[in-house]
Design brief:
The protein is α+β, with helices and mostly antiparallel strands. The chain has 2 domains: about 170 residues, Sandwich (Jelly Rolls); about 110 residues, no CATH class. Helices cover about 15% and strands about 30% of the residues. The protein has 6 helices and 18 strands.
Length: about 300
């Protein structure tokens, strides 16, 4: 049975950082910790609901929405159990039992106004590019039932089960939702503090340890040297010119603060840390970049002078 992977986001005691402000028009939004860069919620969804469940999760147009589903529901007496992405079978016979045609039977439906979509197999049916053998990091899972998108309108999220006869279902799904605005995503570098000099033997001028990334980082940061901060600098990513060792503080190749690794105190070797990095940093970056039609300009990059 699939367990909800990001329960940690809601249940764990989070470390605190200094209170900072980010310019946003005429008012400045206050960020006390990287957890302020997104909001999340969890709840249970009964497998035998007859009408869409209206949540209190308010969405604004342009926000990134990530839905993850845990658990299984027995759909009827003969078909077996479905996870949030529905039964593997998509036969024509089952279509007659579907409330939402063209989607897998028993799948969790995500509804925002007139937009209706079923949960799928993230890292499989959708997001396959993040699961390429030999390239993708270890997430510790084959796939996660869920769905993600950029909202096309304001509204409240609703959820349903794709079953026209839900009365004989048994069980429930656990639903987890993450929401992040474009402005908050761009503000994440408020927390990215980088030593102005490249770490020597992975130790910076303050005696802090850093982990040098492999050439895989070149996909997002050009042919440069990228470093991930340890527990004292958890979540920080600092990029230095391959020739010249100068900190990159402008342009598309500069480092970005990663909320996913911050949650795990900078330990980039843990599969769950890689998964959190994927859903909190990588996927939002790629979706927002596609919407913007250009590389995102992460602001507030800090260069900490060595004494």
């Amino acid at each position: 049975m699939h367990k909800l992977f990001f329960a940690f986001l809601v249940l764990a005691a989070l470390p605190t950082l200094a209170q900072v402000k980010a310019p946003s028009g005429t008012q400045a939004k206050i960020y006390k910790t990287p957890a302020d860069l997104y909001r999340s919620k969890q709840f249970m969804l009964s497998g035998n609901i007859r009408a869409p469940f209206a949540s209190d999760i308010k969405i604004k147009k342009g926000e990134f929405v990530y839905v993850e589903v845990g658990g299984n529901v027995k759909v009827g007496n003969f078909l077996g159990s479905a996870d949030g992405a529905g039964l593997l079978s998509a036969s024509i016979v089952l279509e007659g039992y579907n409330k939402y045609k063209g989607h897998k039977h028993g799948s969790v439906m995500v509804i925002l106004n007139n937009t209706i979509e079923s949960c799928k197999r993230i890292l499989g049916d959708m997001g396959g590019k993040y699961n390429l053998p030999g390239i993708a990091p270890d997430y510790g899972i084959k796939y996660v039932p869920g769905y993600y998108f950029i909202a096309e309108s304001d509204g409240y999220l609703k959820f349903d089960i794709n079953d026209a006869e839900p009365g004989n279902n048994e069980g429930s799904f656990s639903i987890g939702v993450i929401v992040m605005s474009y402005e908050d995503h761009l503000a994440r570098n408020i927390f990215n503090k980088c030593p102005e000099k490249e770490p020597d033997d992975e130790t910076d001028c303050f005696g802090h340890k850093w982990v040098k990334e492999s050439v895989k980082s070149w996909y997002y940061h050009g042919i440069n040297d990228s470093y991930r901060g340890g527990s004292q600098d958890a979540g920080c990513q600092c990029v230095y010119e391959y020739i010249g060792d100068k900190l990159v503080i402008a342009g598309e190749n500069k480092g970005s603060f990663d909320i996913g690794y911050w949650h795990f105190k900078g330990d980039i070797t843990k599969p769950r840390a890689n998964y959190f990095h994927l859903i909190l940093d990588v996927i939002p970056h790629d979706l927002f970049t596609a919407i913007a039609g250009a590389e995102l300009d992460y602001k507030y990059q800090s260069a900490v002078p060595c004494k």
